């Protein structure tokens, strides 16, 4: 009988590593090609449709009764998605849910972003989520997003990813002139209003004023058919240009933009696409707005999940609201979100006995929050035991983690909002280095184990 908990790098005892590398090859493509919430949500729906998922709204209109094994989806306001595989047991006895979030820290354009100054045109931005502002300067940036034209036509915008296109960038002060800047605290050296992207320098030869801005507007109109007024309706963001990459001489890690939390989006998506005939209904939930508090109609604090469960109940012949409440309080959920990994360069912020390491497995986090566990739910002892037993039974490598030392800082996930509905909830996700930076790093083995863990949980395990 082993009395001591053992932890080790997964690669140290994995003879066949091909599945790990093959899985991550597809993940790299996803990460490089889906850099906005709308793009990720559309990708999820497209992949689900390929695997036989049908629109739940259509089933309701046709008054079609769902039966065990049916696969359905809900696509809400282009930024929230729910995928469900109907189980053998009635929904009122609960369901297994894996919830992740689509949104990531980034730079959003202001409603009127274009301005001309000192021989340049720049774009004004407003950062979204928790970032270190200095990390976003002097790097190539691409423009991604959506614009709605007069009449309702929707345009998808992507510029700066093709090698034949230009990129945008935010400039910084040269060290020769940065004496005052370098005496400031690091969070004050670059301010939010300093995050202005260099956009152009050529004047329009026919314009009488704002010549460079006029030239840029003509370029935007020629390329995309948009005017300055259209920018007011737009959801446009600046994101790091270029693809995600393998990291390390051994290629054991993945580096790229948006892994918090799209690493859990991709792994839980792949998991539910492979679920067949579960005992309890399996649900993968993909929500927006987590990085700014989960507010809004596509955030976890909205009624989307409750409404979706109610629609599933109606499609199975249940119309009593009590059945909704029973379904929610009998549910079991994994909050699929990332956590901090031990970084050898910054050792002091984590308590190593309770810190996650890269390529040691999916991370189980009993609670998040900050200080005295503020702003979190906490998984029960019974649910922790259930999940650990399931993962041990399935041979899934796992570890535990915390988001920093007790008084160091902290953060939260959507777990608290799921728990408020009565569910048993545990945070389970992938450890990252450089979280919230333009180039986050995850371990390939952790990514693969997250997929295996979510699949085992959604498929049933303990019924």
TrEMBL record:
InterPro entries the UniProt entry points to: Peptidase_M18, Peptidase_M18_dom2
Cell division listed as a keyword: no
Biological process per Gene Ontology, one example term: proteolysis
Enzyme class, broadest EC rank: hydrolase
EC number(s) per entry: 3.4.11.-
UniProt keyword annotation of Hydrolase present: yes
One CC-aspect GO term: cytoplasm
Assigned protein family: Belongs to the peptidase M18 family.
PANTHER family cross-referenced by the UniProt entry: ASPARTYL AMINOPEPTIDASE, M18 FAMILY AMINOPEPTIDASE 1-RELATED
Name of protein: M18 family aminopeptidase
Species per Swiss-Prot/TrEMBL record: Carboxydothermus hydrogenoformans (strain ATCC BAA-161 / DSM 6008 / Z-2901)
């Amino acid at each position: 009988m082993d009395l001591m908990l053992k932890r080790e790098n997964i690669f140290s005892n994995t003879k066949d590593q091909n599945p790990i590398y093959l899985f991550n090859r597809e993940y790299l493509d996803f990460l490089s090609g889906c850099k906005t919430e709308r793009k990720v949500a559309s990708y999820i729906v497209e992949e689900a449709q390929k695997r036989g998922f049908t629109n739940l709204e259509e089933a309701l209109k046709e008054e079609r009764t769902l039966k065990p094994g049916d696969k359905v989806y809900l696509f809400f306001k282009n930024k929230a998605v729910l995928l469900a595989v109907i189980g053998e047991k009635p929904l009122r006895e609960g369901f297994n849910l894996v919830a992740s979030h689509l949104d990531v820290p980034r730079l959003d354009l202001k409603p009127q972003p274009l301005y001309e100054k000192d021989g340049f045109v720049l774009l004004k931005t407003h950062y979204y989520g928790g970032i270190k502002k200095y990390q976003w300067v002097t790097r190539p940036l691409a423009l991604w997003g959506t614009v709605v034209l007069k009449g309702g036509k929707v345009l998808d915008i992507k510029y700066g990813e093709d090698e034949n296109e230009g990129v945008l960038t935010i400039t910084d002060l040269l060290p020769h002139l940065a004496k005052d800047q370098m005496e400031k605290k690091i969070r004050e050296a670059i301010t939010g209003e300093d995050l202005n992207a260099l956009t152009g320098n050529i004047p329009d030869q026919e314009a009488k004023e704002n010549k460079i801005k006029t030239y840029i507007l003509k370029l935007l109109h020629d390329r995309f058919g948009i005017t300055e007024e259209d920018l007011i309706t737009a959801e446009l963001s600046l994101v790091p240009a270029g693809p995600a990459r393998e990291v390390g001489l051994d290629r054991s890690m993945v580096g790229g933009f948006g892994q918090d939390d799209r690493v859990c989006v991709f792994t839980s998506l792949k998991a539910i696409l492979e679920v067949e005939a579960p005992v309890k209904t399996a649900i993968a939930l993909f929500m927006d707005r987590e990085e700014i508090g989960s507010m809004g109609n596509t955030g976890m604090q909205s009624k989307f999940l409750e409404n979706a469960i109610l629609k599933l109940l109606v499609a199975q012949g249940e119309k009593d609201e009590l059945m909704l409440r029973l379904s929610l309080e009998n549910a079991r959920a994994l909050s699929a979100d990332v956590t901090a990994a031990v970084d050898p360069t910054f050792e002091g912020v984590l308590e190593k006995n309770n810190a996650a390491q890269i390529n040691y497995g999916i991370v189980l986090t009993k609670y998040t929050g900050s200080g005295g566990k503020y702003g979190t739910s906490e998984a029960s002892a019974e649910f922790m035991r259930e999940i650990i037993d399931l993962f041990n039974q399935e041979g899934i490598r796992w570890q535990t983690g915390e988001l920093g030392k007790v008084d160091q800082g902290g953060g939260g996930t959507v777990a608290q909002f799921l728990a408020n509905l009565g569910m048993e909830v545990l945070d389970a996700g992938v450890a990252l280095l450089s979280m919230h930076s333009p180039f986050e790093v995850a371990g390939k083995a952790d990514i693969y184990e997250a997929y295996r863990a979510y699949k085992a949980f959604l498929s049933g395990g303990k019924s």
